[in-house]
Specification:
Number of strands: 32
Number of helices: 33
CATH topology of the largest domain: Aminopeptidase
GO molecular function: hydrolase activity, hydrolyzing O-glycosyl compounds
Structural class: alpha/beta
Protein name: Glycoside hydrolase family 3 protein
Radius of gyration: 32 Å
InterPro entries: GH (IPR017853), Glyco_hydro_3_C_sf (IPR036881), Glyco_hydro_3_N (IPR001764), Glyco_hydro_3_N_sf (IPR036962), NagZ_Beta-hexosaminidase (IPR050226)
Organism: Hyaloscypha bicolor E
Number of domains: 3
Keywords: Glycoprotein, Glycosidase, Hydrolase
Length: 948
């Protein structure tokens, strides 16, 4: 189905009842179509349905149920199919469970523990293919929350971790996996459920107390990046926000959050979905009828109501009343309708909706998905510590030794066979937090770990003792079993929020230590089967293993890992992994010389990763760059020789690059440059950058057999060719200050940096010269002309060589060699005709864009204001220092702008100007696009730091 827009809308949508029906997202209780859900579809024209564990039995039943829902809609005259969505996050949150056809995969944090973005994509893609097979066309994911207060948040392993860049990478990998399988995606839970304050009862709304500035630096990063990469929909949370600049009772009912923060500030144009308006805190606070009107007024396109038919009817009548009272306009309804229809056009049509492939497809893909599930779980198992070398148990337990398993009383995960069995005889019981997070689960006593005990016993072919523990602490039965056992495995699940588990484990650890001191063998292994934060920083727990969830598949992988069938390679999320490695000591990574044939593809992937995870608005830097941008050696027509040496830290098994450093030497000037140094965002703070920097400086200062008499006297950080990093990026002042401290600690002089700016005019067609500018330029009688090619270029090269650095001279030579797309504007003295200024002018799509990537990256971030004419360039102005320098610079810029307009450029960049020159040009209508601080350091200083 084609996207419907403007006048192309089906005439049926002019009926407001039909249009309003598309703005509701509803569910019901029961595994069959009820009269109530039929009424919502037939009489109220409901357009979207959320299926939960209360609706779904087997995969075959689900396919039949979805087909029946779509058939009802089709027969009722719906122009487009229903949006059918599920929560299928894996780990502990799966709406659909069928052990014959639907595979279990690790949670978001467990998937990130594999350290593989490719695996994250594969898992998401497989999940999406399975739910798509039963007729689902939308998945409520990925979870994009950053656990900035990880230890005490109920979200737990549903989130990737506490590092915003890592959350971005894995969230986008999952999003792409879903989309490539044909599903539309819904990021959650905006603006963040990662650091909430809970005040007590279920009627108290959890609160975000961080400021917008704090959120922008962390929690909002994954949402911002996912939006940039094409996220389809966004769920806005039902939390409060309280800080100096914002006092919001319910985020999803606030235009400050939805319209201003999400749409205006972050640029989201997709479908926004409210949190369920039936949640206690919201319905008691405002009421569903008023809440529905407020949600639509705030900018929500779909209003979620999960269960109660009476409440759903109240919401529908509330929206109608809001329209009748002119609180909500017809135009407002139509805006949301168009967004919803556009979303549906991406994921469904009547042919697909009425004939889901069902079991026939699931049977075909199930074997490969089972293998993927095993591989993912095996890769996620993480051993954080094993001080006593107790693992694998097959090497440390004798056949007659008794193994004791101690497990807490927990709820099984919704995606477990235990839950499926209990669901037939028991009602769901949840804590207030779990109700708020829509997590259905059932108290199961010891049942969820019984199979784990059996598996351990089968694996070792020996005696296993198994009992549970509760908030009653260590009882005599536990003491007796601990005295008997040679090895004890304690399972914990969210011990930071279930403090009895923490106390019990510490007590048993103390007992084992005392008994071991008395000569009795007592090996203690603590296994966290949910949040890895339970004992992550507690060194008294010597052997600590993390599984990230306790599904049957996870427990099977745990057993095999404990007994050495494979060596666990999982890593901890975010700062846990980094702090663990940094605490050991500063790591020294193997740095290798760049090899184009081997590393070209890896560098391309690394640049793309960094570009995706960098904040929006960063126009220069790596935006638009490629591996070829750093390859200068071999370029013909450069005035002075250039020596090029690049370095990488890489994974030799996968060929992935963890970090890259580009260096150049100009022998004729005794000058060496580090033009770029960057590291995979998920591998930062692990000393990769330090290792690369140390190796690069050593290489630059080492004797060069090709130039035996050369002695490098100065090192420069930043370069104009390639024109990627002119120095330390300063657009983000906080990050720039951190980088300055880092480089200062590594030998660079930060006391007198050279400030360089990249400027832009984004909408060139509307630009006009300031009043009086042309008259001022003409008054001083400088002559300006434009040349192409090398004819008449000798004076230009002499001028640039005298007044600028060697990399700028090389850039001019490249421009003069490209007569088709580049030219040089000259400014001549009215006295003797000598050159007083020059600047390079480039057409859109200039060949120089390889080495000046901002020439092609600006259009990607200019919100369309650059037009379709491409980006023109005004590069490397070199102006002699005279009293008229400012007017010469303005004249060169004016000629450059006129040339760009003549070439039909939609926007132009001026790269670069220094210090006070910036203010001269801002008055002409330029804006600052990026700012850098170029640093210098004496070669002797680095030698003194023993880098040689």
């Amino acid at each position: 189905m084609e996207a419907q827009d403007g006048d192309e809308l089906d005439p049926l949508w002019q009926d407001l009842d039909w249009a309003m029906g598309q703005l509701f997202f509803m569910g019901w209780e029961g595994t069959e179509v009820t009269p109530q859900i039929r009424t919502l579809i037939e009489d109220h024209h409901l357009g979207a349905i959320l299926l939960t564990t209360k609706n779904l039995k087997t995969a075959q039943d689900t396919a039949r149920l979805v087909q029946e829902l779509q058939t009802i809609a089709h027969q009722a005259g719906h122009p487009v199919p229903l949006l059918i969505a599920v929560d299928q996050e894996n780990g502990g949150v799966n709406s659909l469970f069928d052990e014959d056809y639907i595979c279990q995969f690790p949670s978001a944090m467990g998937t990130a523990a594999t350290g593989s973005l490719e695996l994250a994509y594969e898992v998401a893609n497989a999940t999406a293919k399975e739910v798509s097979a039963v007729g689902v066309n939308m998945i409520m994911g990925p979870v994009l929350d950053v656990l900035t207060n990880a230890r005490y948040q109920p979200l737990g392993v549903r989130a990737t971790g506490d590092d915003p860049q890592e959350v971005s990478q894995y969230g986008i990998a999952a999003m792409n996996g879903y989309k490539d399988a044909g599903l539309t995606t819904c990021g959650k839970h905006f603006p963040s459920y990662g650091n909430l304050d809970f005040l007590g009862s279920s009627l108290d709304m959890p609160i975000i107390t961080e400021t917008i500035e704090q959120l922008s630096l962390s929690a909002l990063v994954p949402f911002r990046n996912a939006i940039r990469d094409g996220l389809d929909a966004m769920m806005v949370g039902g939390c409060a926000m309280a800080n100096a600049s914002m006092n919001v009772m319910h985020a999803c009912l606030s235009d400050q959050v939805v319209d201003e923060l999400l749409r205006n500030d972050l640029g989201f144009n997709g479908v926004t979905i409210s949190e369920c308006l039936e949640m206690d805190a919201l319905s008691h606070d405002i009421g569903v009828r008023g809440g529905t009107v407020m949600a639509v007024e705030a900018g929500c396109d779909l209003v979620l109501l999960c269960r109660s038919f009476a409440v759903q009817q109240e919401a529908i009548s509330g929206l109608k009343l809001g329209v009748e009272n002119d609180m909500i306009s017809r135009d407002r309804i139509m805006i949301s309708l168009k967004r919803v229809l556009q979303l549906k056009s991406k994921c469904t049509n009547w042919h697909e909706a009425l004939k889901p492939p069902g079991i026939s497809l699931l049977s075909t893909i199930h074997p490969s998905h089972l293998a993927l599930s095993t591989r993912a779980y095996d890769s996620s198992i993480t051993i954080m510590r094993d001080k006593g070398h107790l693992l694998p148990l097959s090497n440390t337990l004798y056949p007659d030794d008794e193994l004791l398993l101690l497990t807490p009383l927990v709820k099984p995960l919704p995606a477990s066979a235990a839950t499926k069995t209990l669901a037939e005889t028991a009602r769901s019981v949840s804590t207030d937090h779990d109700k708020w997070l829509h997590r259905s689960s059932i108290m199961s006593g010891e049942g969820v770990f019984r199979e784990l005990g059996r598996s351990l016993a089968r694996q070792r072919h020996g005696k296993l003792l198994h009992t549970s523990y509760t908030a009653n602490g260590v009882r005599p039965v536990h003491e007796n079993l601990i005295n008997r056992a040679a090895a004890i495995i304690i399972i914990t699940a969210d011990a930071n929020r279930n403090l009895y588990q923490n106390g019990f484990t510490k007590h048993v650890a103390m007992m084992c230590s005392m008994l071991s001191a008395g000569g009795k063998k007592k090996s203690l292994i603590v296994v966290s089967v949910s949040s890895p934060y339970d004992f992550a920083m507690d060194k008294s727990i010597g052997t600590y293993v993390c599984t990230f969830d306790f599904t049957e598949t996870a427990m099977s992988a745990l057993v095999r890992a404990l007994f050495g069938e494979f060596v666990p390679q999982g890593t901890l999320p975010g700062t846990l992994r980094k702090s663990r490695k940094v605490q050991k000591s500063r790591q020294h990574w193997l740095v290798e010389s760049w090899n184009r044939d081997r590393d070209h593809r890896g560098l391309q992937a690394l640049i793309k990763t960094i570009e995706k995870t960098s904040p929006p608005g960063t126009q220069s830097g790596l935006s638009g760059a490629s591996a070829a941008s750093f390859e200068l050696v071999g370029i013909p027509d450069l005035a002075e020789p250039i020596e090029e040496a690049h370095y990488v830290v890489r994974n030799s098994s996968t060929q992935a690059l963890f970090g890259f450093c580009a260096t150049y030497t100009y022998p004729a000037r005794s000058l060496a440059l580090i033009s770029a140094l960057f590291v995979d965002p998920s591998k930062r703070n692990l000393s990769i950058g330090h290792s690369l920097h140390q190796r690069a400086v050593r290489g630059l200062l080492s004797p060069n057999p090709k130039y035996p008499n050369m002695k490098i006297t100065a090192l420069q950080l930043g370069s104009s060719l390639p024109n990627i990093f002119l120095g330390i990026p300063m657009s983000d002042l906080t990050e720039g200050a951190r980088l300055k401290r880092w480089f200062a600690a590594n030998g660079w002089d930060i006391s007198s940096p050279r400030l360089l700016y990249t400027l832009s005019i984004r909408n060139l067609s509307h630009w006009a010269p300031p009043e009086g500018l042309l008259a001022n330029i003409q008054r001083v009688s400088f002559a300006f002309d434009l040349i192409h090619g090398r004819e008449n270029a000798a004076s230009v090269l002499e001028h640039v060589s005298t007044h600028s650095g060697p990399e700028v001279l090389a850039l001019y030579n490249l421009a003069l060699a490209d007569e088709k797309s580049c030219g040089v504007v000259r400014a001549k003295s009215p006295v003797d005709g000598s050159l007083v200024g020059t600047v390079i002018i480039t057409r859109p799509e200039s060949s120089l864009s390889t080495y000046v990537p901002v020439l092609k990256s600006l259009s990607a971030t200019s919100n369309g204001s650059g037009g379709s004419g491409g980006i023109g360039g005004i590069l490397a102005p070199v102006v002699q220092n005279t009293p008229q320098a400012a007017i010469v610079l303005q004249g060169l810029a004016l000629l450059g702008i006129r040339q760009n307009k003549a070439h039909k450029a939609g926007a132009c960049v001026l790269c670069w100007v220094a210090g006070e020159e910036r203010d001269t040009l801002l008055g002409m209508g330029f804006d600052v696009l990026d700012a850098f601080e170029e640093l210098r350091g004496a070669g002797e200083r680095f030698n003194e730091m023993n880098l040689g």
